[in-house]
Structure formats: C-alpha cells, structure tokens
Amino acid sequence: MDVWYLSYGSNLSVDRFLCYIEGGAPEGSTKNELGCFDKTPPKENVKMEIPYPLYFSKERSKWGEGGVAFIDHHPVDDEVTIGRKFLITNEQFKEVVAQENNEQGLDIDLDKVIREGAAKITDGWYGRIMYLGEKDGAPIFTFTSNVPMSEQKIKEPAQAYIRTIARGLVKMGLTEQEVSQYMKEKRGGVDPFKL
Predict the structure, then answer these.
(1) If DSSP states are collapsed to H, E and C, what string results for the chain?
(2) In degrees rounded to 5, what are phi and psi of residue 85?
(3) Residues 70/57, Cβ–Cβ less than 8 Å
(4) What is the pLDDT of residue 195?
(5) Average pLDDT of each block of 10 consecutive residues along the chain (195 residues)?
(6) What is the distance between the alpha carbons of residues 117 and 110, in angstroms, rounded to a whole number?
(7) For residues 66 and 45, what is the distance between their CA atoms, to the nearest angstrom?
(8) In whole angstroms, what is the distance from residue 37 CA to residue 175 CA?
C-alpha cells in the first residue's frame, strides 16, 4: 500500500528527505541517516497547504543549536503551513517515522491512525502520527510532537535547519521574499536569508 507522507520542516527539501530513503547525511546535519530497506524513490511529490500552526521548539538537534519544526494538534482558521507530500510505501513511511524518532522497527497501526485521526506511537520528538485525509485513494499522514504547542518552549531554529527548509520552499516555486515572510510569521521563525 502506498501512503502520502506530508512534510513541513527540513523534509520540504527533496535532497534532505531522500537521505531517509537512501541513507546518508544531509547538508548541515551531523547525523548519517540509515535509509529504508526499500530505497525506491518517492513516486511523486506535490505541494499541500494545511491549517495546522507551525512552530519551532527544542534546544538542540543534529542540526545544531536551536529548535526544529512541529505543528500543533488542531487546525486553526487563517493558519497556513506549507507542506510537501511524498508518495511512498507504507513500510517506507514507518521506517521514516522510526528514523525521525531515533528508533528502529516501530510498530505503527496506520488503520488505527485513520480511524482515530491521530495516535501516539512513541515518546520520541515526533511520536504523534496524524491523519490528514487522502488523495488519489492513498491516505495522507504526518507526524509531530505528542506535546501540544501551548506546552512547548518556542525556540528559534538552528541556522542549517531553517536554511534547509528555505531551499525546499524555493525549489517548490516560492521567491526568497515569500519564504522570508512565511518563516518570519511562524512562532520562533526567523528570516533564513539574514542569518
């Protein structure tokens, strides 16, 4: 079964996301990703906007000092978060979730996620899987923190991290000015071109 994985952080950059599929360290990161057992590239990737607030939190990551991207648990009117959907196999998706949470072999019941809308599958930073509907018969999933935004400490992102996001957005067709405006409007966000 194929699923859509919706990214909204560094995986907006196709080159960065492919490290989760093929293995290797993305530019700006200190971590070598394992990659998936099936290294077939995504069949498709397309832009998708979602109404879940984007914010940056955590003190330090493999990208250095500063926060990383999360979305809140519930949609909000007039909020727009830009995402990129990748069409991959359900097994690849489960392996990507495991890599994002520094775990191996996560058992994820995607049917349960669809039924309930969201599910906690691990205590990791990205341990909450969310179901966002479907496109062309394939379900759309993303992941975020188990902790809602209201209980998180907002933290400006690491430079390498936000620049990776910016590269992904530019490749999706946004101008640098549009990317700057978009990032500055987010909680913890900064202009990636003025760091």
Answers:
(1) CEEEEEECCHHHCHHHHHHHHHCECCCCCCCCECCCCCCCCCCEEEEEEECCCEEEECCEECCEECEEEEECCCCCCCCCEEEEEEEEEHHHHHHHHHHHCCCCCCCCCHHHHHHHCEEECCCCCCCEEEEEEEECCEEEEEEECCCCHHHCCECCECHHHHHHHHHHHHHCCCCHHHHHHHHHCCECCCCCCCC
(2) -95, 135
(3) yes
(4) 66
(5) 96 95 87 92 97 94 87 97 98 95 89 97 96 97 97 94 95 97 96 86
(6) 10
(7) 28
(8) 36
pLDDT tens digits along 35-62: 999 999 999 999 999 999 999 999 887 8
Q: Tokens 């949609």 appear where? A: 75
Q: What are the structure tokens assigned to 167, written together?
A: 């590269």
pLDDT of residue 28: 79
User: What is residue 19's predicted lDDT score, i.e. its pLDDT?
Assistant: 94
Asked if 19 contacts 28 with a C-beta cutoff of 8 angstroms, the reply is no
